[in-house]
Amino acid sequence: METRQDFYVGLLIVGAIALVVGALIATSGWGERRYNLFLRVASADGLSQDTKVSVQGLAVGRVATVSPRVDSVSRRISFLAQLSIKERFADGSSLRLPIGTHAEIVQPSQISPAMEVQLILPDTLGRARVYLEAGDTIDSRRKGGALEAFAQVASDISDDLKDALRQTTRTLVRVQSTVTETEKTLRSVTPNVERTLGSVATTMGRVDSLIERLQRGGFADSIAATIAGTNRLLVRLDSLARDASALTHENRADLRSTVVNLTEASRQLNHFVDQMTRRPYRALTGVKPLPRDSTGAKP
To answer: Which end of the chain has fewer CB atoms at under 10 Å, N or C?
Structure first.
């Protein structure tokens, strides 16, 4: 009886061991047919003997070894990773990689330095449909993580901000130059404007005196109204001349033309007042205006 129990216990233990061994074989890939591909990498950072190899997110192999290579001419160090690739998918269909397949080394998790080798298939297979064979070598590139992408975006924004600051500085320099030129223009025009305003004020005083004398002499209301209208015109011209100090460099020519016209108007009014003072009857016969000043003298 005890012998039979020992037999059953031993059989149970052997069965458990067989299940464990079978699970290990199934999960470790023992018995799977695989072939080796080689991958050129510039840096072995993050690659290890068990680094995952995938195609479009599906695990198809592992990194077997990573070996350094030294260029005999430049003496630069590169690395050659041996990839162990399954010959078939889990459903039994053939796993064949076409010519033109390359690899990207990516970091799946930002909190782990472990890398993953992702095989990128070409967009078109071509008519020949040539596939990689065991022992072939493919190229790779290292794809930066999210932090590196964020750093690149921050760098680009920083460059744009620097360009904007430089453009703003140039604009401020131009504005400062314009303000300086405007100040120079106003300083050069102000004396002429003051002299013109003084001449206009004197002329207006004489016109006021003439109007008063005409009113006392009993001249027609139309003449008095004309003189009064001329006086109001001079008042407006005086206001316009006072506002000339606010003009910028671009209006210098118009300002000088206005001053010249004011000077000419003052000269004609002085002539008119002088003729009316000497010969009041000219209010009826009219006063011949002076010929326009052709000397080109500026005020």
So the answer is: N
* pTM flag (> 0.85): no
Nearest C-alpha neighbor of 43 from the set 140, 153, 148:
140
Phi/psi for 58 (5° steps) reads -100, 125
Q: Are 267 and 290 in contact, with CB atoms under 8 Å apart? A: yes
189-228 tens-digit pLDDT: 788 878 888 887 888 787 777 777 766 665 556 666 666 7
Three-state SS for the chain is: CHHHHHHHHHHHHHHHHHHHHHHHHHHHCCCCCEEEEEEEECCCCCCCCCCEEEECCEEEEEEEEEEEEECCCCCCEEEEEEEEEECECCCCCECCCECCCEEEEECCCCCCCCCEEEEECCCCCCCCCCECCCCCEECEEECCCHHHHHHHHHHHHHHHHHHHHHHHHHHHHHHHHHHHHHHHHHHHHHHHHHHHHHHHHHHHHHHHHHHHHHHHHCCCHHHHHHHHHHHHHHHHHHHHHHHHHHCCHHHHHHHHHHHHHHHHHHHHHHHHHHHHHHCCCHHHHCCCCCCCCCCCCCC
